[in-house]
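Inputs:
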Amino acid sequence: MVLVCAGHPAVGSVPAVIGRIPVLAVSPVVDSGRWPARCVVGEAVPVRATVFREGHDAVSATAVLTGPDGVLRAPVQMTCLEPGLDLWGADLVPDAEGEWTFRVEGWSDPYSTWAHDAVLKVAADVDTELMLAEGALLLESAGATPGRSPAHERVLAEAVVGLRDTSRPAQARLAAGTSAAVHSALAAIPVREMVSPSAELALRVQRQRALVGAWYEFFPRSEGATYDERTDTWTSGTLRTAARRLEAIAAMGFDVAYLTPVHPIGTTNRKGRNNTLDPRPQDPGSPYAIGSADGGHDAIEPTLGTFEDFDALVAEARRLGLEVALDLALQCSPDHPWVTAHPEWFTTTSDGTIAYAENPPKKYQDIYPVNFDNDPAGIYAEVLRVVLLWVEHGVTLFRVDNPHTKPVQFWEWLIAQVAARHPEVVFLAEAFTRPAMMHTLAKAGFHQSYTYFTWRNTKAELTEYLTELSGDSADYMRPSFWPTTHDILTPTMQYGGRAAFRLRAALAATMAPTWGIYSGYELVENVARPGVEEQIDNEKYEFKARDWAGAEREGRSIAPWLTRLNQIRRDHPALQRLRNIVFHPTDDDSVIAYSRRLTAAQSPTGRPDLLIVVVNLDPHGVRATTVHLDLPALGLAWGSSFVAHDLVTGNEWHWGEHVFVRLDPHVEPAHIVHVRGA
Amino acid sequence: MVLVCAGHPAVGSVPAVIGRIPVLAVSPVVDSGRWPARCVVGEAVPVRATVFREGHDAVSATAVLTGPDGVLRAPVQMTCLEPGLDLWGADLVPDAEGEWTFRVEGWSDPYSTWAHDAVLKVAADVDTELMLAEGALLLESAGATPGRSPAHERVLAEAVVGLRDTSRPAQARLAAGTSAAVHSALAAIPVREMVSPSAELALRVQRQRALVGAWYEFFPRSEGATYDERTDTWTSGTLRTAARRLEAIAAMGFDVAYLTPVHPIGTTNRKGRNNTLDPRPQDPGSPYAIGSADGGHDAIEPTLGTFEDFDALVAEARRLGLEVALDLALQCSPDHPWVTAHPEWFTTTSDGTIAYAENPPKKYQDIYPVNFDNDPAGIYAEVLRVVLLWVEHGVTLFRVDNPHTKPVQFWEWLIAQVAARHPEVVFLAEAFTRPAMMHTLAKAGFHQSYTYFTWRNTKAELTEYLTELSGDSADYMRPSFWPTTHDILTPTMQYGGRAAFRLRAALAATMAPTWGIYSGYELVENVARPGVEEQIDNEKYEFKARDWAGAEREGRSIAPWLTRLNQIRRDHPALQRLRNIVFHPTDDDSVIAYSRRLTAAQSPTGRPDLLIVVVNLDPHGVRATTVHLDLPALGLAWGSSFVAHDLVTGNEWHWGEHVFVRLDPHVEPAHIVHVRGA
């Protein structure tokens, strides 16, 4: 396949690559159209293109959206955003899920050409009669365009009469042809010549949750687990006891309850507490070492319960307005049924044994990695069967463990197969890996990706990273921001105390449309296993019974703060988008300021929404500094002031360009300010 | 046309967009393959791609070039340039003109995977026997790959024996399997698994002159023109007298003699001296107001001579090693034969008259612009006929006047038609316009473009602009650097005296593979028409007899400097490339330093070439400062020193990282230093 392509009608024997009016660099586009660009229903998609023409005549452009039904939507007039670069733009807002397309049409604009020239020439009395006559001809023909409203037809007819009225002065005749009424009649249906369409580009429109959500991760077995001190043994929580936790999760405003794997856990080479190799008999094993005599990825660990229990948990979640996400960890304990039924789905070494997972010279003997190459058709189909099984039991999102250790081709296939049957299902990639793989997994189909946010702490780091995430990659990669996970506890979180947990939650919740926390975040669980950036007593290897009620009673829980953040997210569509973040300078590098803005046309509510967030990044001390707001980026004129309503404290201030802020991380680490009526 | 495409074999019913080994962002590529990337014969084309794979196994990549004959060239092993970004690269060097293609193949590298793991595991005595056994199997199979040389077969067979020799210690056996000899045998024909090709991308290979050359522009009528003071009239020079100038042009080392239009000039509304509207009868008119009763673009102004004279001029040029470029100015005097024969090739206003060129409210009544839309087939064919006529008379390059006032689609068609018949013909776009048009003309087929160099004076401006030109746009746009033209005399040139003319020539000649000057540059003609950035007494409207010999005799000519520059350009292939410029910091912003480097593999001579150029940008004063050389960018180790041979003065110095320079613009404005043996 040679990629050189001809897009326009040939002139004689020569294919025309360029149109009569050049239209280039149309976006959003992913890898030149190798994959569709992505958005969600109701999202304002910024369409951009370079459109220009030869000579001095006026050019214009229209963005045209076609629905999954093949029906064109009303074309949108583009505006010239950067005249020097011939950059044009418009927002397109698809209103339903499915496979949409869009194109940009460049066109010659004879009316604007005439109006520009006529104003100059009539003023200089050069070709006055000729210019007025040509204007009349142009508007006469414009009036005859099909589809024009009677009112607009009348406006144009009157303009023609005015232009031809030789009893009036030339300037009056010109004014008749260049009135605001004429402009608005022509804006409704412009006179378009030499219309030159770009290629039709694909735009995949997915449901809201593919972009927006607050996730809460927990280990179902820990919820309701009980410890018997006498025997030093635990009784596992069950899906039934775990379901009781859902009410609190929903009350905190989360949208998604994400369960770590619920499948049977292997016993061969089971890991003990803190990843040790000598487990006690009562250690429950890692739920990521999947598979035992009780079944594999399509089964439920018996101590957790049954599919009936699982269905009940899902039903309870739905009652509370929560969706259920399940971990998809494609690796097997040596006891997994696949190992005997399908040894070809693993790697057999030359001595006939199945290869363990390893990071040479280290081996992970509780795990066999799946080999996707020996029998791709077989293993692909089996994983699809597993995923569809859980979808049938109500799982609508999958958090995919280590997708970067499996072939990208496999994910592309799997997600396409699932989407063909259940387009609502969302896949979140735990792709904590290098950028190329992370981005390619997103292009290949993952709806969301974990990100480097977890390790971005300073103002410079956050500004650079958010600028990147909200730029071109927003066309395909949707970030999910997690301050911690069950495997990651960064130094910032280890040493920043409660303030760090509160401020990092505020950043995650207000910087990205999707964020999540791992259970225990409310309790500021910040003790690390010495020497590693991971919680001590990792819940993967043991039960954790948490005293939620006690912590709330004693004021140790930051659940109220998380609840407030989630409520603000729900109330404000500007926080439910990715591309609309703008950073504002602050004098102190420990204080970061950014705004999130949707115009009325960009907002699904039809009302504008503008938030300004100021966060003290220093969990150890009070910071007082000045924030310098880029007022035009807020849609405000330089020099203007406005009422800033703090959604955290309820305070109101008058803010202008230069704002003094003082943030005590031990009281409130952030201002989240709503600008009413902006 | 929807641009989403599937590039790889489907798995079941799902087309795989991604290959088994992901290969993304392959370059050079122009607008996603909408047009072919461009290079010249023998140019080292930097191929880049993002190649990676899942998990921890080793990956590698090969760049594969296919000639216009459809025959694959020897594949080139790529190297990982940026491991964190999974960026791979290699140079490909096409050795003939024509339509080539290339692709990047990503592949799994089982030998590197094994070697990496075996070294770690054998050292830790984990699976020692297994690892040695697997290495033996791998090399056994590698030895059987077809095409391997007997010597390499022997190396691999011995390695297998060594790996299996249980009488030796494990480390010795491992060493047998990981020796340098084994590596080099496998480098010749690697063990490649899961080979995943990118799309095949187009690479148009053109002749050297499309990229490299020194142009000399002159008005043929001025050469040999004589003035009679008594009658205040001029006798025009002719093509015969103009041909006498060619020897000096060739002696200065120029490659191309570019003639302004030689066609009959209209008399209707002819312009007088300095663009005035009231010419004297003896004024010759602008050669850009083409066409009279004597003919149009396919004719020669009678006072200049005949086609026989033109042919003689071309023959003389060829004898001197010069090529002839002709102006292609597609506009007509009202007296042009097309006006009566084809009024539809112009714009008729509603009063029945043909529209003049204008910039409202100003009109240019000596010119009718061509309208390409009324009868595209007719006008396109006629221009093609005209161009081919001149090609038949030996013109091999066209300098296209104001291409940005004609449809891009027309140029794409015209250049393709000419290339199909005469691939050697080069088109230079005088696209002094906004970037989008300038770049698109290049993409659509122009071999070269005038640039903003003419207005880039400071170190920051030049650094930014050259960084841009030598970056991605080098895949399609080849810049031509002109310090002045017959229409442009910037303030720098007006006020910088002889020093400015010398230093700007040095910059143009050493920064870009193609540069040019307009006749009179040698004489430092720097007087402007008051208030405009243009020469006074513009040669477009009058004759200019220049006393070349007198100027040289009196030392007023900078021809020796231009000659030196062109000689250095010819001697040094590093100056004949675009992508190889690197800037080095200097302490004084009035001094710019840059290097041009080709490795032996990148150089058409097979020998490395390294130049360091240091220019004093201040034409008014001596500047002494320190240049800080980025030694690794020169292929040298930090801390090393080298002999710097100044090609301007013949001086030799020992240079290292920090170099003190002192440049007097009135003596030598530049060091052009050759680093021998670098």
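The CA atoms of residues 141 and 408 of chain B lie 56 Å apart. Flag for discussion at group meeting.
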